[in-house]
Design goal:
Length: 337
């Protein structure tokens, strides 16, 4: 007799020794299937289970119209899932802390004064993050059917000014020190060159592999902004890639032969920088600024730099390029003239 195998159906023997069949699918309700497998009753229950809707996160503990209910829907919405993974984690952490004391409050009852009070209890940087997280939530809440609320209480609230400390841009002396300590062919040098000659963020560098290169051009879609960049390989980067043995899908791998996590790679880069004896302010992100400096000194304009780094804002590019050598740029200009 042919045995019927259906997707998501799990068979087991219960404590009484009787065979049971249960429909189990991640994100969907579990259903006990009655009747013999293949029977009319069984197949009807199976089809009904297949057509059931997803389980909303936290639906069992939410009241309609509350912050709890809005968050349950927001986390599964396309608007939230389209955010970069790092942004998702940050906003979920902020909103979950807010849920602890305010989860049962109705969304329609949240006023501007309430949001301002929440922001006043935080540092300027934390207050801005809270406001951005709430704006994403209220934008979702206003466009549901029926809507959770009719207006966004964060609208019109002035954002606090945050005094940011500029990241250090690596100097040529610091770059040379790191190159001397980590020769071509080492994993440290490959990671260093990927930063210095592509100008990408840490989360994108750890994803890079040979599959991203075609006809001497590295093409990658940035995680943070979804910007697609196409970067011709610098000869020094190509030499570093060719000299580093690697059979993994990613260029940089950890001691276990696996791709790095974002946090793990940050710690490893810090160790490699310390081994090279560069100042503590020399970070991986500082190499992103270093390539901007080098491009300016070579005569590149803002649009040339944006095509490599993926920046979308000219002001942001200018901020990254402040530490260029005016003498070097002057020499380049005179040579062109």
């Amino acid at each position: 007799m042919t045995r019927i195998r259906l997707k998501y159906v799990h068979e087991f023997i219960d404590s009484r020794g009787k065979p049971r069949c249960v429909f189990r699918r991640a994100g969907f309700p579990s259903v006990t299937l009655r009747g013999l497998p293949g029977s009319k009753e069984f197949m009807a229950a199976y089809q009904q289970a297949l057509g059931a809707g997803r389980i909303e996160i936290g639906a069992s503990r939410t009241l309609p119209g509350t912050l709890n209910a809005a968050l349950a829907g927001y986390y599964t919405s396309l608007a939230f899932r389209e955010l970069a993974l790092g942004t998702q984690k940050l906003r979920r952490r902020i909103l979950e802390r807010l849920r602890v004391a305010n989860g049962d409050r109705p969304m329609s009852g949240l006023r501007k004064e309430t949001v301002i009070d929440w922001m006043n209890k935080r540092t300027p940087s934390s207050a801005r993050q809270l406001a951005n997280a709430l704006r994403g939530l209220f934008k979702f809440a206003m466009n549901t059917d029926p809507p959770f609320c009719k207006e966004d209480p964060t609208r019109g609230i002035p954002m606090p000014r945050v005094r940011t400390t500029e990241r250090h841009t690596w100097t040529e002396e610091e770059i040379a020190r790191c190159e001397a300590r980590h020769p071509v062919g080492t994993m440290a040098r490959l990671a260093f060159d990927l930063f210095l000659y592509t100008g990408q963020r840490r989360g994108d560098v750890i994803r890079m592999g040979r599959q991203y290169i075609q006809n001497g051009v590295l093409t990658i879609t940035q995680q943070k902004t979804k910007t697609r960049v196409e970067i011709p390989l610098h000869p020094k980067l190509q030499a570093s890639i060719d000299a580093t043995p690697n059979v993994n899908m990613t260029f940089v791998i950890n001691a276990f032969g696996k791709p790095f996590t974002n946090g793990g790679f940050g710690k490893r880069m810090r160790k490699w920088c310390d081994e090279a004896g560069v100042p503590v302010e020399c970070s991986a992100h500082g190499l992103r600024r270093a390539i901007c400096r080098r491009l300016v000194e070579a005569g590149a304009n803002a649009f040339d730099i944006m095509s490599i780094t993926g920046h979308r804002d000219l002001k942001e590019v200018e901020r990254y390029c402040r530490d260029f050598s005016r003498l070097q740029r002057a020499r380049t200009a005179i040579e062109r003239m």
